[in-house]
Amino acid sequence: MSFIKSFSAMIVLILASSSILTTAQQAGRSAFTVFNSTGRLPPTCSQGYSAGRDEVLYTVPYTYPQVLSIIGSFANITWNGITATTLNGTDNTVGTARTFDYFGLRLIETIKTYEKPVQGPYFEDHTIAPSYNPATNLSLYAFTHALTATPVCDGAAVALNFTAVFCSTDVGAAGDIFHSIHLMHAMTLQEFLGNETWTGCQYSYGCHGQNHHGDQWGYGW
Fold it and tell me: CA dist 192 to 9, 21, 116, 129, 184, Å?
């Protein structure tokens, strides 16, 4: 029985890899595979892909527990504007993947790291499996798609860091997508919490005086 289960799992993995290869080939690029079920990707960008990075820093004037009440479930990303999510495993567990449609792409994010200490900082990092949008002929995948939430201002606020390190056949278009996603996530989270705008700490340490929407945006490593 265990052999049959193992063999079935192997067939599923082969079919999944074939699907990824087909997607890459449809994009007219070199084929590659995801190495295993935990979402590991090739260590560098494959032929026909270029490296990109987007980072958005945003602070919300709410406590760490308040922020976690919204972002603290890998399965529930309604605060991202996404209501239809499929989970293949246990919530908030390394190796679990979620699948959803976004910006014309079918995205599969697999948890690499998940840390949720009571006092912070919160940290989650995922890979994004190869995805292709036929309408725009855009392919991308990501080694890192991370969110860090750090209590600041003696706990009166939380500093958010949204970071993507990715490969794409069109780095400019992919960078625009990630930047739009990150800004939308930050501002939607703020709205879910009450839509108060952070204006800075009331003393000289712990925070800066404004949110950063674009100055961390760059392509390449």
Answer: 40, 39, 20, 29, 12
Confidence of residue 83 (pLDDT cuts 50, 70, 90): confident
- Length, in residues, of the chain: 221
**Tokens coding 141:** 């995948």
What is the DSSP code string of 141-168? EEEEEEEEEEEEGGGTEEEEEEEEEEEE
Structure tokens at 89: 């495993």
CB 190 within 8 A of CB 159: no
d(CA 47, CA 44): 9
Predicted TM-score (pTM) of this structure: 0.76
Tokens of 204: 């000289």
Q: Which run of H or of E encompasses 110? A: strand 105-115
Residue 132: is it exposed, middle or buried by C-beta count within 10 angstroms (0-12/13-18/19+)?
A: buried
The two structure tokens encoding residue 186: 């930050």
Question: Is the Cβ–Cβ distance between 52 and 138 less than 8 Å?
Answer: no
pLDDT tens sequence across 92-118: 999 999 998 888 999 999 999 999 999
Residue 217: what pLDDT?
39
Nearest Cα to 50, choosing from 133, 189, 172? 172
H/E stretch holding 176:
helix 171-193
CB 198 within 8 A of CB 189: no
Given the structure tokens 């990150």, which residue do they identify? Answer: 182
